[in-house]
Design a protein that fits this description.
Blueprint: H1 3-10, H2 30-35, H3 46-54, H4 65-80, E1 87-95, E2 102-115, E3 120-123, E4 128-130, E5 134-139
Antiparallel strand pairs: 1-2, 1-5, 2-3, 3-4
């Protein structure tokens, strides 16, 4: 006996029935029906982790005593002229929040305040720079 005949013969009673529509549940939108067949990524987030591992950071450079002394003198001179809000270019180390190391950033702007107690230099654009992280300072008053 033919195999196709045998299989179709078993389902002849339901083969041409109308599609069932639930009286109590709304029909699912096509976009949601398609989403259930979307590809599944077992390694989701893996490419982000690889990218994070491959991201390079700089190591912090420790300044010598002479360089620290020069920076302190430059900061003192800026503090004396804080009323004129001197223009500065500050290169400082910003530690990375996710891994060891960080990046050296140069910020330019006018000094708003030097906070001795918090040990920060505040620029007028709102940038707060920790004094311990400053490695280079150029100013129009120095």
């Amino acid at each position: 006996m033919n195999e196709n005949f045998y299989n179709s013969h078993n389902y002849e009673d339901i083969l041409y029935l109308p599609h069932h529509v639930s009286p109590s549940r709304p029909r699912m939108p096509k976009i949601d029906r398609a989403a259930q067949f979307a590809p599944f990524s077992a390694l989701s987030g893996f490419s982000d982790a690889i990218g994070e591992t491959g991201r390079l950071t700089d190591e912090r450079v420790e300044l010598g005593e002479e360089a620290k002394s020069e920076l302190n003198e430059e900061l003192r001179m800026i503090q004396e002229r804080i009323a004129i809000h001197p223009e500065v270019a500050v290169t400082y180390f910003q530690p990375d929040k996710r891994k060891s190391g960080g990046a050296y950033i140069t910020a330019t702007g006018r000094v708003k305040k030097i906070d001795i107690y918090r040990r920060t230099v505040a620029l007028q654009d709102g940038t707060q720079i920790p004094m311990e992280e400053i490695v280079r300072l150029k100013s129009d008053v120095v």
